[in-house]
Amino acid sequence: MKMVVALGNPGEEYENTRHNTGFFFLESYLREKGFTVWKKKNRARYIEKYVNGEKVIFLEPLSFMNLSGEVVSVFKKYYSIPTEDILVICDDLDLNLGKIKLKAKGSCGGHNGLRNIELHLKTQNYKRLKIGISNDKDKSTIDYVLGKFTKEEQTKLNDLVPKISQIIDRFFVTDFSLLMSQYSEKNR
């Protein structure tokens, strides 16, 4: 069994913000697959589906970014999902807009959602699909990540949807080290 977790903040005021990049890409993937009926429990919305004969939980914590780990931990325990079978999709300030980095483990890199996941899973050994949102050093980090994408930025992210969907599909059937070598990009 696997779990794909997207990070973001709930509520209309956060739609299309940089910090909701994870939600954007997971929802795009699920729409493409025709998986559109969400269930709600334990401060999350989720979809249970079988992919390639294996049960998968697609999860969006609705607890706000900084408390994502609490929700992830509850679902991990309830469904007995091994930590190595969890993929977290999130934004990354340190990557240029639209760049992709896959990581099998490592520190949170200052990302509060990832920090909370590490705290509640008691490990840094979970997989991540990080999507670059760039960084505007002239703005506070909070204002920047909670700011909306410009039209040009959103177009660039829309163009990335097929590639992210392909990565998610391949997560279910491909060794993660191979995915990292095939899809992680240099930050140029």
What are the SSEs and their pairings?
Layout lengths: L1 E5 L14 H13 L5 E3 L2 E8 L2 E8 L6 H12 L6 E7 L7 E4 L8 H10 L5 E6 L8 H5 L5 H21 L4 H8 L5
Please provide a brief summary of the model.
This protein has 6 helices and 7 strands; from the N terminus they run E-H-E-E-E-H-E-E-H-E-H-H-H. It is an alpha/beta fold.
If you had to describe this structure to a student in words, what would you say it looks like?
The chain has 188 residues and is an alpha/beta fold. It has one domain (2-183): 3-Layer(aba) Sandwich (Rossmann fold). The protein has six helices and seven strands. A seven-stranded mixed β-sheet has the order 2-3-4-1-5-7-6. The longest helix has 21 residues, at 151-171.
Low-confidence segments, given as residue ranges, are none
Mean pLDDT: 95
- How many domains in all? 1
How much strand content do the residues show?
15-25%
Q: What's the architecture in CATH terms?
A: 3-Layer(aba) Sandwich
**SSE run:** EHEEEHEEHEHHH
* CATH superfamily grouping: Peptidyl-tRNA hydrolase
Question: What key attributes describe this structure?
Answer:
alpha/beta; Rossmann fold; 188 residues
